[in-house]
Every structure is written in structure tokens, then in C-alpha cells.
Description:
globular; six-stranded mixed beta sheet; alpha+beta; eight-stranded antiparallel beta sheet; 2 domains
Amino acid sequence: MKTMILLILLGIQGTAAVTHSLKYFYTGSSQVPDLPDYVSVGLVDGVQISHCDSSTGRNVPKQDWMDKVTAGDPQYWQRQTDICVSNRPVLKANIEIAKQRFNQTGGVHIVQYMYGCEWDDETDEVNGFDLVGYDGEDFIVFDIRTETWIAPTPQAVITKHKWDHDRANTAQMKNYFTQICPEWLKKYVSYGRSSLLRTVLPSVSLLQKSPSSPVSCHATGFYPDRATMFWRKDGQELHEDVDHGEILPNHDGTFQMRVDLDISSVKPEDWRRYDCVFQLSGVRDDIITTLDKAVIRTNGETPTDTKASFLEWLMSLIRSSDTQTKGNCVVHSKHTLIINF
Length: 341
């Protein structure tokens, strides 16, 4: 379960179809030092739009353009705060339930809900997703096609049967994924269009910790996160001796990624046969960096922004809108459900 500079735009091909996404992460934790025990974040196209945690007790916008939502709905953020407060005990209770099922007592434990939808702005196709994780592993996943829950672990079977039999809740979830979520995603995209639909090219560097270490091709400062990067030899993409890293957010709303090449078996005279290729959605030209010892940075350190943004992302993942209570779940007219196990 796993997820944010302004440069001159180059080689833009014109308007291209884009698949937009709206994702919410609700994370409850126990005995995690120096972190709130409850955090929720909302993201549009990988950019954080909202944040709430148990330390502040407030749901707040993280992008200036999200202030537009209150123009016709002054109570929007207060309702988001109410949702934040009401979801916290549900996640705390689910941690205790999961601990019992896994025969656990104390220690660090984390439960996380991730749900949302994707919308293709060309075909208008929408897809929804909802999954729950516990201690870094999938716990239960909603299959929107069959309208049933999938339990990857035996400890989640009880929850599967319970949620499968709650047909009213299932109907509400289907409505959320097919109607409500896409509706709000389209609104958010319209609010932040100038920011979300921009294209920003990265700076690309070759990094190496020591002469015997892999060479890392590192791209940072790009937007959007629809990018690929790979190593080639003689113009052909390599699939062996390479290690692809995740796309990670930077603190300024752009993204970074890396791909490592094991050069232990590469002869010095063959280095120039290798190059790193970065491709960004909506941009015609690739950014190509030839493997060259003269341009490799070998300070033995991971770039500061890499470490900082990774920790920021990790923290955010361990950190909606009329609301009404129905049984043991919180029902959001603009967001989906957070339900007891």
C-alpha cells in the first residue's frame, strides 16, 4: 500500500487525454513515537489537497486553489473536520480487533484505509477502489465488479462475511465510486486546473555512493507523476541489472524518481553504450543522459531532497460533506465509508 518548481515547458504535444485520480488515506496507529495516532490526507493526481490529524483536530486545505470549494459551501472544512474527528475512534477500534485476530498484544501497529476513484477526461470512464491494510500488508479489498470483498488473509474472513452481508452499505459504496467520487474529482480538477495540468521538466543527475556501487539515474522536480525512466544499452531497454525506485513526492508538489544500474560487469570502454532515458507524459522529447564517469556525483550521500521527501511521504501515509451515523460506520455523502472490522 503504497505516494507530490517551475521550469520552462519544452516539447509539449498539445492537449492529451489524462486519467485523474482522487485518493484518501486514513491511517490509525498505536505506539508509534512522535507521530499522531490518526492522520487523514486527500490527494488529487498525487498532490495533497487536505490534511487532518489527531494532534490538530482540524482538516485543512493544502493547496491554495482548494479554498475555492468554500465559495459556495462555507461549512465545507468544518464538515471535513467533523469527519476527521469521528473516524479516529473507528480506526483505533479496528487496530484492537486486528490485534486480537492476529494474537498480538503491544507494539507498533498500523491500520490504513485507502479509497478513491480515477476518471479518464477523454472517455469519461471512471473506476473506484477501496482497500484496507494492516501492518503494511493487504487486509481486505473491495471488488467493485462483483460488489464483494476479497480477504487475502484468514484473519480478514470474518470482516469479509460481515461486510458482504451489509448490502445497504455495498449499494452506498457503489454509488460513491460511480457517482459521488467522480463528481468531486471533476470539481477539484476544475479548481486546480492551472496547477494540476501543468508540465514541469526535471533535472536529471547520475549519482554513485562509491566506485563499486550501482549508478543511480535520479530525476527530480518533474510534474505530473506520469513518468517513466529506464536504462538502455545500444538503444535497447535493459531489464537485467537494473532496480527501479518508486515515484516520490517533493515538498514543493513536484516528484522525483530513480533507476539504478549495476555496473560491476560493465567495462570502462563500454560505458558510453549506456544511457538513462526519462519520459514525461505530454512531452514529446525524452531526456537522455549518457553514462559518463565525468558527470557522476560521488559524494557518498543520498540527495537531501530524496531523504526528506521519502520521510515526508512515509509520515503522510502513517497520518468529506454531510455526515450521518448509521450502525457502526460513518457515512459520507461526499466520501466513502470508514467501517468497523
